[in-house]
Design goal:
Blueprint (H helix, E strand, L loop, with lengths): L5 H6 L6 E4 L17 E4 L4 E3 L3 E6 L2 E4 L4 E6 L2 H6 L1 E14 L3 E13 L1 E3 L2 E3 L8 E6 L4 E3 L4 E9 L25 H9 L24 H4 L21 H11 L5
Antiparallel strand pairs: 1-5, 2-13, 3-12, 4-11, 6-10, 6-13, 7-8, 7-12, 9-11
Length: 255
């Protein structure tokens, strides 16, 4: 395991962001494990999320970001998979009579609810209270104080100047969503050659002449040119008397 030299440590700069606690119960964002990118955000007070609603929960935190840095409030991976943990009451199907009529039962206590944290961003000029936006598709439930509800991540941004042009100088990558990398496959499916001429797949560029032993049967002249004679099948021989009787019988006329 290599050690970090002093010069490498000098390149690593720790940027300090000003943060203010707006209540006694507010907690500073902190990492759950060393090396994590996101900082866990804890709820300062108990909060009841209404059923089937969108709410903004205040965290009683205010942060001053420098220019060129944005912060995002994102869901924790566990909440994205299982839902948000809380306390409430929910009706569950215990059994079904005859496989049709459901018999419900009431379940209360700590459980996971079908709710998610919506991603939101914090600009450098935003110094008000930070909120966590939650969308609830389940019954009403209560989130306890101190629960890790979301995580705070930081990203470096750029502020470009836009130059209006008639034509773009970049290579043409194509068009809409899911278009990247499909031009080559589309060309293979259509059988397009390198010169742009279309030809069906499975057809050879040149036809190999037949062997010398079968050249006379194939109609190859002495000059080397190939002349293929069309083969016309002969019609079958049918007795005229039988054909007339058969045709009359087919149309319902009896002789």
């Amino acid at each position: 395991m290599t050690k970090t030299t002093k010069s490498e440590k000098a390149k690593i700069r720790k940027r300090e962001f000003e943060i203010k606690l707006l209540s006694e119960n507010a907690a500073l964002p902190k990492k759950a494990v060393r090396g994590a990118i996101g900082y866990d955000l804890c709820l300062p007070n108990d909060f009841r999320v209404p059923a089937h609603s969108r709410v903004a929960i205040p965290l009683d935190l205010a942060i001053n970001l420098p220019v060129g840095i944005e912060a995002k409030i994102e869901p924790r991976s566990g909440c994205s998979l299982r839902g948000i943990e809380g306390y409430g009451t929910r009706k569950v199907i215990k059994r079904k009579i005859l496989g049709i009529i459901p018999v419900t039962d009431t379940k209360s206590g700590k459980m996971y609810f079908d709710a998610d944290v919506c991603v939101s961003k914090i600009d450098p000029n935003h110094t008000d209270t930070i909120h966590v936006i939650i969308i609830n598709r389940d019954e009403s439930f209560l989130i306890r104080k101190g629960s890790r509800i979301a995580q705070l991540t930081f990203y470096q941004t750029i502020a470009p100047f836009f130059k209006q042009v008639e034509e773009l100088t970049c290579d043409n990558r194509g068009g809409s969503l899911g278009h990247t990398g499909t031009d080559r496959l589309r060309g293979v499916r259509r059988g397009i050659a390198d010169d742009g001429n279309r030809k069906p797949l499975g057809v050879a560029d040149t036809l190999e002449p037949p062997a010398s032993s079968t050249s006379k049967a194939a109609g190859v002249s002495n000059s080397g040119t190939q002349s293929v004679q069309p083969v016309i099948p002969e019609p079958p021989v049918v007795d005229s008397s039988m054909e007339s009787e058969t045709n009359l019988a087919d149309i319902g006329v009896h002789v």
